[in-house]
Write a structure and sequence with these properties.
It is built from 1 helix and 20 strands. It has one domain: UDP N-Acetylglucosamine Acyltransferase, domain 1, CATH 2.160.10.10. The chain is an alpha/beta fold. A hairpin with a 4-residue loop joins strand 19 and strand 20.
Length: about 200
């Protein structure tokens, strides 16, 4: 009996992905967002692009927005916004996002093979531009093969080196070197990864 329910779940997930992907591809085309081959969606993501900004998505990327499409649980859809004048979001190949919010006013570059755990946030702004206490927007760079654990927040002006792992719930406010495990609030290096 359990096997039958598992097969029904897999089958319904495949149908959801097929329908969501077709709908979202049309949505991306209407917003003039460039994307590569084999892009997949599980549920409806939200994309916002101002007229002068650019969003590019590489090959074989997936966006999970349905709450049960990631078994750790997603509490919001993927939301990708490029709202600043001439802002740029560039996502590499083979990346995965689960309820991830990417908010860009300047520049956010995400390398290849980056995995963003459930409910992650990446932003290059304080989001209060008219408040005098807000600082200037600063670009964010995430290297190849980076893994962001569940609930990680990557804030403005940060670069994360390739092959690094950021532990669940961490808040990244300073650069993280390549090939490390880092965690905490504020996020700091825990140990080096052996290559």
């Amino acid at each position: 009996m359990v096997r039958i329910f598992n097969l029904i779940g897999i089958w319904s997930s495949g149908i959801l992905s097929f329908i969501s992907t077709r709908y979202m591809i049309l949505h991306l085309l209407l917003l003039n967002i460039s994307f590569g081959k084999k892009i997949r969606f599980f549920g409806r993501a939200k994309f916002v692009r101002s007229g002068s900004s650019r969003i590019t998505i590489g090959d074989n990327c997936s966006f999970r927005s349905k709450p049960t499409s990631n078994l750790i649980g997603i509490n919001r859809p993927c939301i990708i916004t490029a709202t600043g004048r001439k802002s740029i979001i560039r996502i590499g190949d083979n990346c995965g996002f689960s309820g991830t919010v990417i908010g860009c006013f300047k520049e956010i570059i995400i390398g290849n093979n980056v995995l963003c755990g459930a409910n992650t946030l990446i932003t290059d702004s304080d989001w209060h531009g008219k408040d005098p206490r807000s600082g200037e927007n600063k670009a964010v760079f995430i290297g190849n093969n980076v893994w962001l654990g569940e609930g990680v927040k990557v804030l403005k002006g940060v670069a994360i080196g390739e092959n690094s792992v950021i532990g669940a719930g961490s808040i990244v406010v300073k650069n993280i070197p390549p090939n490390v495990i880092a965690a905490g609030n504020p996020c700091r290096v825990i140990r080096q990864l052996n290559q």
